[in-house]
Amino acid sequence: MGAHTTDTGPKRPNGAREAEILDLLHKADSALTPGEVTELLGGLTYSSVVTILTRMHTKGLLTRTRRGRAYAYTPVTDDPGFAARRMRSVLEERSDRQAVLARFADGLSAADADLLRHLLGPDQ
């Protein structure tokens, strides 16, 4: 057996780990280093946390600034902004935007459709 720490607990998809870390960063009072994320989150090795944070930074989900020998990470937007960004990303990946938007609108509840009309302006 080696002296290094290994990930514990059940294997989770990367997206779930990213969401968990993003939630932690949103709730933090300030930017967090990988060591702080590892300590607060538990269940992951330091190197796994560094890998996930680096990947999230590369995707444009996080900003980072130097703090000592490490980077400290913070989300680029709040949770609603992150969700909106994901929705735009999915829309941009599809060639038929009209069909995607039509299917999305068809699936909205009456209350959500009214809210969307209100947000788009009085002429909608």
Automatic annotation (TrEMBL):
InterPro entries on file: BlaI_family (IPR005650), WH-like_DNA-bd_sf (IPR036388), WH_DNA-bd_sf (IPR036390)
Family, per entry: Belongs to the BlaI transcriptional regulatory family.
One Pfam family, short name: Penicillinase_R
Protein name: BlaI/MecI/CopY family transcriptional regulator
Keywords assigned by UniProt, alphabetized: DNA-binding, Transcription, Transcription regulation
Species in which this protein is naturally found: Streptomyces macrolidinus
